[in-house]
Amino acid sequence: MYERSERITVVTRPTRLAGLLQRWGTKGQAKFRFKANKMAVQARAGNLEQAAKLQKQTDDVDFDLLEDEDQVYRDAVGRLMRDLDLGVPVQVIDRAFMPNYDFSMSTAVVVLGQDGLVANAAKYVGDAPLVGVNPDPARFDGVLLPFRLTNARGAVHAVLSGKGRIRPVTLAEVKLQDGQQMLAFNDFFVGVRSHVSARYRLTVNGRTESQSSSGVLISTGAGSTGWMSSVYNMAAGIAAQRERIEPPRLNWDEPRLLWAVREPFISRTSQAGLVCGTLERGAAMEIESMTPENGVIFSDGIEADVLEFNAGTIATIGVAARKARLVVP
């Protein structure tokens, strides 16, 4: 008999086909719009003959792939629900409802991939263990999806019985002076929505500097091999004639963050003395916006998870008090 406080929450996502159907209503209309969009891309390239030829050759195949992807995912949801008949209530939610869902009663949270869905869920589930399940190994690498449908039941059963193996993962946290806050599993980006330079005042490790740049990136250990590594790869390419700049890597549970300023510009009013470093637990970076509009802070590359960061806003960023808890085999 399960405890009244126990619940398994399953987080799912819409497939690409489901997104098309939500927009266009019927599969026929979605297929028509899908073809029209591809035709428009070729037409803008100025080759109408090639566009018509390519459309005839590939449209049906591409749409069939969307249908197959959708069917595989729906089959995965169905099998997972049958396998999770463990005597505990199971609640299925779409990812769009995570920010408003109460995870406090979830003994286990099962995320039916992709990787980005696990990263996004980690910001909302509190201390609940996260079981990442790969619904389609042929399509998804699944770095954060260590389980497949064949062993998902065993993983969840282990969590319910208190025997699940947990990998703690450090999260980053941003707080604004008005009380708004947000977590990040991989990284925060602080900048503007467009390619216009962001203007801000950066304070870290007791030093303050006014800057104009493409934005500031703050990364966890989990994110250190992603966007942050790209920043260092760019720097390494530029400095290749002098020395090799190796991208720093942190273990996922290390209680510190990496940060880097993207493309800082030096002028009479902006400097580039503070461009990269680490934030240890208990330390914080403060960024005061001097950008009049379109300033943003978003986490994990998801622009929907955003805080406005316009002139006068002050953000404090550091290691979060809580960690994500990933279940591992």
- Helical segment count: 6
Class based on secondary structure composition and strand pairing = alpha+beta
Task: Please identify, by name, the CATH architecture of the largest domain.
Answer: 3-Layer(aba) Sandwich
Question: In which range does the helix fraction lie?
Answer: 25-40%
**CATH class categorisation of the largest domain:** Alpha Beta
Range of strand content: 25-35%
Structure at a glance:
The chain is α+β, with helices and mostly antiparallel strands. The protein has helices at about 15-25, 25-45, 50-85, 115-120, 150-160, 225-240, and strands spanning about 10, 90-95, 110, 130-135, 145-150, 165-175, 180-185, 185-190, 200-205, 205-215, 215-220, 255-260, 275-280, 285-290, 295-300, 300-310, 315-329.
What order do the helices and strands come in, and which of them pair?
Elements: E1 8-12, H1 16-24, H2 27-44, H3 48-83, E2 90-94, E3 108-112, H4 115-122, E4 130-134, E5 147-148, H5 152-160, E6 165-176, E7 181-184, E8 187-192, E9 198-204, E10 207-213, E11 216-219, H6 227-238, E12 256-261, E13 276-280, E14 285-289, E15 295-299, E16 302-308, E17 314-328
Parallel strand pairs: 1-2, 1-3, 3-4, 4-5
Antiparallel strand pairs: 6-7, 6-17, 8-11, 8-15, 9-10, 9-14, 11-12, 12-13, 14-17, 15-16
Give a verbal description of the structure.
The structure is a single chain. With 329 residues, the protein is α+β, with helices and mostly antiparallel strands. It has 2 domains: 8-163, Rossmann fold; 170-320, Probable inorganic polyphosphate/atp-NAD kinase, domain 2 (Tumour Suppressor Smad4), CATH 2.60.200.30. The chain contains 6 helices and 17 strands. It has helices at residues 16-24, 27-44, 48-83, 115-122, 152-160, 227-238, and strands at 8-12, 90-94, 108-112, 130-134, 147-148, 165-176, 181-184, 187-192, 198-204, 207-213, 216-219, 256-261, 276-280, 285-289, 295-299, 302-308, 314-328. The strands form 3 sheets. The chain has a 6-stranded antiparallel β-sheet with strand order 7-6-17-14-9-10. The chain has a 6-stranded antiparallel β-sheet with strand order 13-12-11-8-15-16, covered by helices on one side. Helix 1 packs across helix 2 and helix 2 crosses helix 3. The model has no long low-confidence stretch (mean pLDDT 88).
